[in-house]
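User: two proteins, same treatment. go.

Assistant:
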Amino acid sequence: MYDPELLRTFLAVADALSFTAAGKSMGLSQPTVSQHVRRLEEQVGRALFVRDSRNVTLTVDGEALAGFARDILASHARAVSHFTGSTHTGRLKFGVAEDLALTRLPRILRRFRHIHPRIDLDLTVLRDEVLLRRIDSGHLDVAFAKRGLGDPTTNRGQLVRRDQWVWAAAESVPTVPVPVPVVAGHSADLSSSVSVQSLATAGVPGRITCVTEGTNGVLAAVRAGLGIAVFARSLLPSDIVELPASTGLPALPGLDLVLVTSPHAPDQPADALTSTILSGGVPRQLEPPS
């Protein structure tokens, strides 16, 4: 049986695609992270990552093990819960960005409820910037949100995954018309701000073809062919296509998915939730439309 500690470290690297970021998220040094991965690679007898001076990517065997590791850790947590039972009690106010709420996160939260049945979870779905304001005001205990890499608030909380903004449309196209037709969400929405600012910085004319509230509205407009939009790469639905650089669209920055905990949050419930999300991995894709 593979050591759960090694599997957790492996998943942290697989999600962040960075040994350094994985170490920070787990409170481990980079050499310790490397040692854990090396020991796991020795156990499985396969290389799990391809590493060079700048990039870390999963091998085919690494991708396979990531799925097995999540199942193993989930089974391990259920076994511990069955024989010891969680003694954690309390109420936790948890906020999550809408596009993250549309992923596999609900399945992770169901597992949390199974492991910690005595913790009541109040779920709120809001925009990223509102979530952080609610954390600061004490109205939320834990928030799962997206933050830009250049944003100083990115340093708050635990890094769950480093991601990349991408341009996407209903179908692949060789070129994009100018002015670029853009589907936008709320004026304060992070992805909409990224799309407008990137076009303006690159001097590429754009026009807002549709303004809608929330991720579902943006998805509906893009699927209808009303324009293109910016999404986090890991959260792209299977029916929305990432547009290549050859279309002439400006390059986009990266982003972080982070868990931010209020200093006033109840310690044990907050730790239990963040541990469950981190061990369960980051939801990789929006749920497909029904």
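Protein 2:
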Amino acid sequence: MQDVDVLIIGGGAAGLMCAFTAARRGLRVQVIEHANRVGKKILMSGGGRCNFTNTGTTPANYLSGNPHFCKSALARYTPWHFIELVERHRIAYHEKELGQLFCDESSKLIVKMLMDECDAAGARVRTNCSVERIEHEGDRDFRVHTTADIVRARALVVASGGLSIPSMGASGFGYELARTFGHTVLPTRAGLVPLTLSGTHQERLADLSGVAFPVTVEANGASFSNQMLITHRGLSGPSILQISSYWQPGDELLVDLLPQHDAHEFLTSQRHARPDAMLHTILSEVLPKRFAQRLCDVWLPDRPIKQLTPPQLRDAATLLQRFPIVASGTEGYRTAEVTLGGVDTNELSSTTMESRRVPGLYFIGEVVDVTGWLGGYNFQWAWAAGDACGRAVCTD
């Protein structure tokens, strides 16, 4: 049997951050990861360059049953703290858009940085090591039976992630463990995920797969402006991934196809300037040509714009700025970047991440009911939650 102060289940972003933060305080820390390598989601993120934070991070960029929960950790560990760490390791990075920071070279550098910090602090990281069962003794100690040995720990940190991308080893282990210890787990679903279409809507758009253009999409009071991509199964692109976290089956989804224009003013000006131009010709100058033609084949009257009556012109403008999408579902956890829902934050301390039910038990990262927007926010939550836990664990 091994004795440690802190045992962390999960070698992802939050788990590794917590490990070296706690180990710097002189604690004996061990991380166990069931996969053959740590940081798999870090490695694949951002197209292999890791969108490791967002300089515009605020609590408003997160969804949670308790929207105040994330405030404390995010305030104490900001994007600038992580940027300082990245710069100290001489990792070159750049801002892509909207505060999103990416490695110039490879996401492997972020994983190496985290592992180097763990090594320097003395935190031990073990891969290919799974939990078989956990015994909790009355004096706060946790006895964790793994596939390798038994570890006795004063504190147990669950950083096992969510259900997104099961091909990389994601599972519901953390949720099951939380329930075992009497915690409430809020319903989970795929977030930051492509939407699927079915029936007539899918048939009308499927052959336009690959067409992308900027839109503003809204659902349930939320709206996002960015690229939308038509796929053979439905819709994707940053704007769709963002809204997917707010949309649920049956909800209305509206897309402004011309976010840079007032559609009615644009069509009216074109009617005066070039009355003989066909509607699809005019729209193909502000939309991808194939999509503009499909709009006029199916939804709009394709005729010289001078032949559109004022009511028809208003109807066309309304369709362009409030184009209804009838989504049938999502691509699911297979392609989802995050998992919505998770361990109820009302049962955790927002400053330490410790369970209010079981002293010495902590939950951090994606397993918790805190989900960020697309664009580096989920990594910033992982860093902040890991840091908060690492500073607090075993302080009694």
